[in-house]
Design a protein that fits this description.
six-stranded antiparallel sheet, 16 helices, 574 residues, Alpha-Beta Plaits, five-stranded mixed sheet, alpha+beta
Length: 574
């Protein structure tokens, strides 16, 4: 019998569930359901109340989005799968320790065709154990056994890979817009390049109408669904005065969505080291993507085609009841994530990470180990029985047997000595692996630095480049000159600035420029550096700048761990 899988797309105002199976290469949908979640109250109680009366049975995969799921990236040197496992277990262990133990994680290697050969990219997903456990318990209570959870962005990528209009060599950005969050995936040649999620969705457009027109939420939602059309603001398009006024209220969230797409491409370039990334097409899914004119507005600003993505033409709907067929027909954009999750639940070959509560993971590992021990026990019984029969048949050759035992003892002694030598080699390899983990754990440093730069960047400045690497620590002397400067700001404690070279430290390089617009650039730079120095995770900042003709170019060296103190500093401190 073909395996049946269920995909659960749990949003903030609705839950969409698809259940299906593969018939050959075609996926057949057996159930299609969407339930609206009432506003207010405990979200888990609302979910339980909505699903409790439904006949839902089966195994499934739960999608995660929003601020509750974190997607991170880390660069590592090319290593064997076993060493990759060791490195990632080390990094995950550090993250869990820092968060107090309430985090579960999983990772997957991204096999990029392009990028530097000396580094590989690994995608890491993290979610709070309690958050995941509570939702899995509610679903289990209504008959759904959740085999794991996965970011919606990966389900969106798999839905496109199996059911989309795939074009070779095209870089496609997939954007799923929910009520409060959006999920983004970048792909090329059927390989995932980058995935992320952001807290921006259709409710932002509703809120913009409420603020712009002074209406309540119910009226704003109705205007958004029935009358709003962003295309009336495009060149050559005209609408009546009320339509244009309504469309102008939506420019704010539409602009943030455009900026999110741009920043995603920038992040993808920095993480994958594929700096020639150029979008070929943007595909929209999710309920928020049904806003009229949104695709035309984004296409006008991005300069690439923006189209809705409906995966349903590629699947078989013949097994659905008439009611469920009417529910899903014409709403393929809204079911893209649920379809990707259900197909992943059936076929393990899809790219994924699987997040499980620690308690569930240990139970599954125990079951696997118990099954192995039972099989080993059966084999051992057969072996003992065979050995007993063999021993009886060789009873007349006791002398020869004793000689063989003596020889076996010598062999085992030799093997034991080799084993002890191998233990020493393994210990040395572990030490080297730990060093590599410290040296290449640069991804989190880049993320912290970029968030701090975005937060404090003055309007007179812009960023040209951002990169991170591990390099020997150089302590700079303070210098100043009318047209250029070079100096150091310590984010934690004062220390005598003496030129010197120290150990390798994670360092983020921020290259940018500025133009005067009412304020002198050097004081603005000083304020910017001081603001960055106050951010948690930035231990020290070294800066260099050149100024002339109202312009300024600067390079900031953000030291992400505490630099060592020199002996003279310690003596003076005493």
């Amino acid at each position: 019998m073909a395996r049946i899988g269920m995909g659960i797309d749990l949003g903030s105002d609705s839950v969409k569930i698809l259940q299906g199976k593969f018939k050959g290469e075609t996926f057949q949908i057996l159930r299609a359901m969407r339930f609206h979640l009432p506003a207010g109250g405990d979200p888990l109680a609302r979910l339980r109340d909505v699903l409790d009366s439904e006949d839902l049975k089966g195994n499934g995969l739960l999608g995660l989005t929003g601020k509750d799921i974190i997607i991170r990236y880390t660069q590592i040197p090319p290593v064997t799968p076993q060493r990759l496992k060791t490195l990632m277990e080390f990094e995950i262990g550090e993250i869990i320790a820092q968060s107090g133990g309430d985090v579960v994680a999983d990772y997957a290697f991204l096999p990029l065709e392009e990028g530097p050969e000396e580094e590989d990219l690994v995608l890491l997903g993290l979610v709070k154990d309690a958050f995941l456990s509570e939702r899995m318990a509610v679903l289990k209570g209504v008959g759904i056994r959740v085999d794991g959870a996965c970011p919606n962005a990966l389900a969106l990528f798999n839905a496109f890979l199996k059911n989309g209009d795939f074009r070779g060599e095209e870089i496609t950005l997939l954007l799923n817009i929910g009520a409060d969050n959006c999920d983004i995936a970048l792909q090329k040649n059927a390989q995932l390049i980058f995935a992320r999620n952001q807290s921006l969705g259709g409710n932002a457009f509703t809120q913009a109408i409420m603020d712009g027109l002074g209406v309540d939420r119910k009226r704003a939602e109705k205007l958004k669904q029935l009358r709003a059309d962003l295309s009336t603001l495009l060149p050559g398009q005209h609408g009546d005065q009320d339509a244009e006024r309504l469309a102008r209220t939506l420019v704010g969230p539409a602009g943030r969505l455009f900026s999110t797409i741009q920043s995603t491409v920038t992040f993808a370039k920095n993480q994958s080291k594929i700096y020639n990334l150029k979008l070929g097409r943007v595909l929209l899914t999710g309920g928020g993507s049904r806003l009229r004119g949104l695709d035309a507005y984004l296409a006008q600003n991005l300069g690439v085609p923006v189209e809705p993505f409906d995966p349903l033409p590629a699947v078989d709907l013949s097994a659905l009841s008439p009611e469920e067929a009417r529910e899903i027909q014409g709403r393929g954009q809204e079911y893209a994530v649920a379809l990707g999750l259900s197909q992943m639940a059936v076929d393990s070959r899809f790219f994924r990470i699987t997040l499980l509560p620690e308690k569930v993971r240990k139970i599954m590992e125990f079951k696997r180990s118990t099954a192995f021990m039972l099989a080993a026990g059966v084999l051992l019984l057969f072996f003992l029985a065979f050995s007993f029969i063999e021993a009886r048949s060789e009873n007349s050759q006791a002398t020869g047997w004793a000689a063989r035992v003596s020889n076996e003892k010598k062999i085992r002694l030799k093997k034991r000595r080799k084993r002890e030598a191998l233990k020493g080699e393994i210990a040395a390899l572990r030490a080297k692996t730990d060093l590599l983990a410290r040296r290449h754990n640069l991804g989190p440093s880049l993320v912290k630095a970029w968030e701090a730069v975005q937060k404090h960047l003055p309007p007179e400045f812009w960023i040209k480049d951002l990169k991170v690497k591990s390099e020997p620590y150089h302590r700079l002397e303070k210098k100043s000159a009318p047209r250029s400067g070079r100096g150091l700001v310590n984010a934690r404690k004062s220390r005598k600035e003496v030129a010197g070279v120290g150990p390798e430290l994670p360092t983020v390089f921020v290259m940018g420029g500025g133009r005067e617009s009412g304020r002198q650039l050097v004081p603005v730079l000083n304020d910017f550096v001081e603001a960055l120095a106050g951010e948690k995770g930035i231990e020290e900042i070294q800066r260099e700048y050149e100024i002339g003709a109202g312009k300024l170019g600067f390079t900031l060296h953000l030291i992400m761990v505490t630099p060592p103190m020199e002996e003279k500093d310690e003596e003076e401190a005493q």
